[in-house]
Design a protein that fits this description.
Elements: E1 19-20, E2 25-26, E3 32-34, E4 39-42, H1 50-58, E5 63-66, H2 70-75, E6 89-92, H3 103-114, H4 119-132, H5 134-146, E7 152-155, H6 162-173, H7 178-186, H8 188-191, H9 196-207, H10 211-219, H11 223-237, H12 240-246, H13 252-262, E8 263-264
Parallel strand pairs: 4-7, 5-6, 5-7
Antiparallel strand pairs: 1-4, 2-3, 3-8
Helix pairs in contact: 3-4, 4-11, 5-13, 6-7, 7-11, 9-10
């Protein structure tokens, strides 16, 4: 992990794929960038060391949002046990309901990721995440709206799909260019490189008939897959703002505040006021 480019990657001992969502130029507002100190993403953190915990606290992270479902966690608890870190609140915000983790539902969902039609499979999978994930995403977005001084970490299993979709929504909301959003998503290829073989072995064991080729497609993070999903967000919801209004119930003022809180301009300090 120490050899990964920084920024955006940050070496947190025991956590893979850890990076900040900061530093990306925005157009809403103009002449600004995403803040480097409020929102972080990663793979699941169960193997974090004492040094890693100290690094999380040095970043002032006070809340960790876990997008996994409880049945999912239960199935792999020997590999990724739930941990509690003193001073950091762990909030479970599952994208999929518990019933969506029946063997039949899992098989159907994995079929999209492992489909040999490539991008279209990921488009379907991410559309499914968008449709089911609104309550979880609302909780995270409300935190960003209400607590701009309290950085948070968002993760799922690999920090790629469920995490990738909410990060893309946030970047799209503040007008980051599509290709930049897709390239940020693709950084997961680097972030998971050291862990890739372990994930593939787990997927093959967990899904039975996925096979190595299918498992490799599942752990890929090709920019073109995210570009297709951004197109889906526009086609179905009219864009990120439309998604936040239609699926999460946010108002224009809510969206304005989220945009203010996740961006920064060199000539403006929004937190000087009481």
């Amino acid at each position: 992990m120490a050899s990964l480019p920084s920024p955006p990657f940050i070496a947190i001992e025991g956590i893979h794929n850890f990076r900040s969502l900061g530093g990306y130029p925005t157009t809403i507002p103009t002449s600004a960038t995403t803040r480097p100190d409020i929102l972080f993403r990663s793979a699941e953190p169960s193997q974090v060391t004492a040094a890693g915990i100290a690094a999380l606290k040095a970043l002032n992270i006070r809340t960790i949002f876990d997008l996994r479902s409880l049945p999912e966690i239960e199935r792999i608890k020997s590999l990724t046990p739930i941990i509690e870190i003193e001073g950091i609140e762990r909030v479970f915000v599952p994208v999929f309901k518990n019933t969506d983790y029946s063997p039949e539902a899992i098989a159907l969902r994995y079929k999209d990721y492992t489909s040999n039609d490539g991008t279209e499979g990921f488009r379907r999978a991410y559309a499914d995440i968008l449709e089911n994930g609104a309550p979880a995403y609302r909780t995270i977005l409300a935190h960003l709206r209400d607590k701009p001084r309290e950085p948070c970490l968002v993760h799922c299993m690999a920090g790629k799909d469920r995490t990738g979709v909410i990060m893309a929504l946030i970047l799209l909301l503040v007008g980051v260019e599509d290709q930049v959003i897709a390239d940020e998503y693709a950084l997961t290829e680097l972030g998971l490189a050291a862990w890739k073989e372990i994930i593939i072995e787990h997927l093959i064991k967990d899904t039975g008939d996925t096979g190595r080729e299918g498992a490799e497609r599942m752990v890929s993070a090709r920019a073109v897959n995210m570009l297709a999903s951004l197109e889906t967000i526009r086609n179905i919801y009219g864009g990120a703002e439309g998604y936040l209004k239609q699926k999460c119930g946010f108002t224009d003022n809510d969206i304005k505040q989220i945009r203010i809180n996740v961006t920064e301009s060199q000539d403006t300090n929004r937190f000087d006021q009481p």
